[in-house]
Design a protein that fits this description.
- Helix 2 packs antiparallel against helix 4, helix 3 packs antiparallel against helix 4 and helix 4 packs antiparallel against helix 7.
- It is elongated, with a radius of gyration of 19 Å.
- The chain is mainly alpha-helical.
- It contains seven helices and no strands.
- The protein has one domain: Phosphate transport system protein phou homolog 2, domain 2 (Methane Monooxygenase Hydroxylase, Chain G, domain 1), CATH 1.20.58.220.
Length: 220
């Protein structure tokens, strides 16, 4: 039978995993919107994120309560502190998704020139949401997480490369279509949110490894 502290830890772990998979679901809705150029999918995604901060705060309050009441031992303390940081990273990923969906609603309805970048954006987004899915799956996994961590790093590296290619193409287009220069820069800024998502997934993966095995924590 699990102790009261172990039961609380298990609940927190499952709550964070559930919270993470809501973000994955939002990410998949946005991806459908990208593939179909359907603004309704972006609106649905933004609505799904409406209570994300409140949900994160509820989990954080449970973590703080556990720290205060149950006298966590070293391993449990390390795990709880890691979870506090993980919820923060997840909220920031959700913020990136919200901003991305908001901007994409404009691009697919009023900016025909965006179509020339669509394939790069799809690939970049696929890598970013792939990193989110793998990182979330690590949280309640029973293995040591090393293999999943490497997969997150691969997706993060792919997103960096794809962003660099997209940046090069957009900067090249700037020289040919000066009338759209501000819009091109805005597209680049929006795509930067995807790269940031992948970076935050690496941070989550590192936190999970730290929670499981300890050692030295370096997020960035």
């Amino acid at each position: 039978m699990l102790s009261r502290n172990e039961e609380k830890l298990d609940k927190i772990r499952k709550d964070i995993e559930k919270f993470g998979f809501v973000i994955v679901e939002v990410g998949e809705a946005i991806f459908e919107g990208l593939k179909k150029f359907d603004a309704k999918e972006f609106e649905n995604a933004k609505n799904m994120l409406r209570n994300i901060e409140a949900n994160a705060n509820a989990i954080d309050n449970d973590i703080i309560m556990s720290l205060a009441l149950f006298g966590a031992e070293a391993k449990d303390l390390r795990e709880l502190i890691s979870y506090l940081k993980i919820t923060n990273e997840m909220v920031r990923i959700a913020d990136n998704m919200r901003g991305f969906a908001k901007n994409m609603t404009f691009y697919i309805t009023d900016a025909n020139y965006f179509h020339i970048f669509k394939e790069y954006v799809l690939q970049l987004y696929k890598s970013s949401i792939g990193a989110v899915t793998i990182a979330v799956g690590m949280i309640n996994s029973k293995d040591d997480g090393e293999n999943a961590y490497r997969k997150v790093k691969v997706e993060e590296s792919k997103s960096d490369d794809l962003y660099s290619i997209l940046e090069k193409n957009i900067l090249s287009a700037l020289g040919k279509e000066l009338d759209f220069s501000a819009n091109h820069i805005q597209i680049l800024s929006t795509m930067r949110k995807l790269e940031k998502m992948a970076d935050r997934c690496v941070a989550i993966a590192k936190l999970v490894l730290y929670a499981k095995s300890g050692g030295e924590l370096r997020l960035y």
